[in-house]
């Protein structure tokens, strides 16, 4: 097989065209789509990041948009529709076939970060009372698109409730007269339509499935999530966590324009500013101490910054551990103990180094001792807050990643300044 | 279907037992494994995080370890073996069947973050000159474990070179006498055995495959990566990036002990300390200015900290964009322009707010103007370095995430202190 026989060589892959047009202005993106056949254009649109969908389709007229949505799988049509302005979305949905429109609307009704928001409604359900031969006849009548990429076949009862799974291979290697009920595997792992999408990537990573069926609370099979979708969800969830930690929206991408980015970034910068003023106020309390001993100003940022960095290490391990489902009850306490020990030992090491440099640089034993102690205490504060902040956010049912680095550096700044300047003031008073 | 019929209810899932024992000391983990049948124990070991493998198997004797490795799929056996002390690994491999030992050793020879390091050698290759009937006979003779989870069947020539793919469904719905060569799909996306594993999660997320064949440079089919593995790889890569950014090893987990964590965290804390002293040296240059005007010390951490936070927002977007493959040539320049504009506007907004608060707090127009300008310039420096640092690391063929937050805060601290104290010194001199 030569590279020249790969799909991309016969024309750009829809996913690659999608990457390209989501970086273009709406009118240029529309030109690219119009130059393709409707089926190809729909394939491209299916691959566009939902966040870029409104922009990419912005310059298409209603009929063009509807023609594309009509050939998309329902779940992709819903993903795109979810990002459109409301009037546009309603107009486009109204033009679809009633059955398609109803199904897309139903998928739209699930929160976008729930399992319902990412599942596909394209799956194969076989009545539990069929024989293998009848099941094969049933399969031959299906749209080939439905068969494509179906990792499992699902067996359901008269109410549409999931009763078991089987594979196409099962149908080949068994006698044609055997009823499905006899060999369908009833031990099925599933997810609920209202579960969080994070659950899904965890389940896939943990149990290695190629597909998971999605059930309503009453047990009815309503969709399926394939592993390939779970890869994208895992990436999305990780991106969201990384972004939330530093005060981003969780949805910013390279192609997000500055006009879209500013209203999302600036508010968190203002929150950060408010917390910075809080820390500055602590410094303000000790302004007369600094006036007496200006060398303190030189060491201030070291004590605070070093604490912030150590705390970020702890925070990152904890938040990622929570996202991957590695942290449960006892391991939470164990993590706190581990980070406390690390804070103690790193604090001792860094405290001694900072103290020695302080003494050597300014020739003052007192400065060395004060900065050393403050550094040690701030490293401990950093370790503890790196664990406690995400746990506190989680307890309040807030995403543990949300702006956690901003909260953390508030603690390490305030505590660092207070320990350092407080100890210095005390030393000046006593000596 | 009721929950009581789910697999976990009939006994804990191997993956869940694995989670549990990787938090236990070696001797307790060994007890848990010994209480299981060898087949079940192997299933559990297959689910243990490679990073915890040495600990989990630490208290097993060589015969016990060998018995487990013998029943594991080769790729999982290689993952575990890679983490064992060398003498132990060699002893265990020597005890395997020669064919298994050779295959595990071959998988071990690939770097662990390469495609070879994550692929499975369990795939179905059918000679291209078979008919459908012959192919079905071939399949019936195979170990059922090989068939399980195989999303595609691969067609190869006499040299083992990949010629195309087909699915089990193709074999059912076509005439038994048809040769495979007539309908196997020759347009196959593949990955190379020496590609980086990041390539794989990108390919899965981008093109939605259930499995990708892995080829040697000469076109021979040597393995396969399934989408379920790609989910775990995507999570692993994201964890690594998040950790590298803040100076962690990329491999730290909740169950990593403090003894393992300290030699990995402390060096980066010391690097951070060195850069903090660099920033402190800038403050040192202006000690006499601070002695004249101690209010400067109060605003110092605001200018630096706020720059650091804004820079982290930029850095996070860029690094994640690089990891997801969203950044190529022109979009890099576009990203730089976008961040420059954001730095300009956020800098203007934050600069004005900080200036006003400075004036209001200390009653000094001069302080307000100085802090406002310094803030503005530092926000620009933050935006530019948030883009340029990862690009510079990438150009030097270093992971763009590596310690990038440490480099970034060095820039924002040094630049922030220099702008603020430099402007203040200048103002004091002129006025």
Separation, N- and C-terminal Cα atoms of chain A: 83 Å
| Percent in helix of chain A | 55-70%
Strand content of chain A: 5-15%
Shape of chain A: elongated
What does the average pLDDT of chain A come to? 88
Describe this structure in words.
Two copies of one chain form a homodimer. Chain A has 431 residues and is mainly alpha-helical. Chain A has helices at 14-21, 26-34, 38-47, 50-56, 62-71, 74-82, 86-95, 98-108, 115-118, 132-140, 144-147, 168-173, 197-207, 227-245, 258-285, 287-292, 295-323, 329-362, 365-395, 404-430; strands at residues 125-127, 153-156, 162-166, 191-192, 211-215, 221-226. In chain A, the strands form two sheets. Chain A has a three-stranded mixed sheet with strand order 1-2-3. In chain A, strands 4-5-6 form a three-stranded mixed sheet. In chain A, helix 18 (329-362) packs antiparallel against helix 19. The longest helix of chain A has 34 residues, at 329-362. The model of chain A is unreliable at 1-10 (pLDDT under 50).
């Amino acid at each position: 097989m030569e590279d020249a026989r790969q799909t991309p060589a016969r024309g750009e892959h829809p996913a690659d065209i999608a990457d390209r047009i989501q970086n273009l202005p709406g009118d240029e993106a529309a030109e690219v789509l119009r130059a393709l056949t409707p089926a190809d254009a729909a394939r491209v649109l299916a691959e566009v990041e939902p966040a870029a969908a409104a922009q990419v389709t912005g310059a298409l007229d209603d009929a063009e948009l509807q023609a594309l949505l009509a050939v998309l799988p329902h779940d992709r049509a819903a993903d795109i529709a979810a990002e459109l302005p409301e009037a546009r979305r309603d107009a486009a949905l109204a033009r679809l076939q009633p059955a398609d429109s109803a199904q897309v609307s139903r998928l739209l009704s699930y929160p976008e970060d729930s399992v319902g928001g990412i599942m596909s409604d394209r799956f194969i359900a076989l009545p539990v009372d069929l024989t293998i031969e009848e099941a094969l006849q049933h399969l031959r009548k299906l749209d080939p698109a439905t068969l494509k990429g179906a990792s499992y076949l699902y067996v359901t009862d008269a109410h549409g409730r999931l009763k078991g799974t089987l594979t196409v291979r099962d149908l080949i290697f068994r006698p044609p007269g055997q009823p499905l009920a006899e060999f369908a595997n009833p031990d099925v792992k599933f997810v609920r339509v209202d579960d969080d999408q994070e659950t899904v990537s965890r389940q896939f990573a943990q149990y290695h499935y190629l597909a998971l069926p999605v059930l309503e609370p009453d047990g009815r099979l309503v969709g399926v999530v394939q592993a390939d979708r779970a890869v994208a969800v895992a990436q999305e969830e990780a991106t969201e966590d990384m972004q939330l930690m530093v005060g981003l929206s969780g949805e910013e991408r390279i192609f997000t324009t500055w006009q879209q980015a500013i209203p999302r970034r600036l508010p968190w910068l203002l929150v950060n500013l408010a917390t910075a003023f809080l820390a500055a106020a602590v410094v303000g309390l000790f302004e007369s101490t600094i006036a007496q001993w200006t060398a303190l100003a030189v060491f201030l940022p070291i004590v605070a910054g070093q604490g912030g960095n150590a705390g970020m290490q702890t925070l990152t391990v904890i938040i990622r551990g929570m996202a991957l489902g590695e942290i449960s009850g006892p391991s939470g306490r164990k993590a706190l103990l581990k980070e406390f020990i690390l804070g103690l030992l790193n604090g001792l090491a860094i405290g001694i180094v900072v103290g020695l440099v302080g003494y050597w640089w300014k020739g003052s034993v007192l400065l060395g001792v004060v900065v050393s102690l403050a550094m040690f205490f701030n490293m401990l504060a950093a370790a503890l807050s790196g664990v406690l902040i995400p746990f506190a956010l989680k307890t309040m049912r807030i995403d543990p990643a949300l702006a956690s680095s901003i909260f953390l550096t508030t603690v390490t700044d305030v505590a660092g300044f207070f320990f350092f300047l407080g100890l210095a003031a005390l030393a000046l008073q006593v000596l």
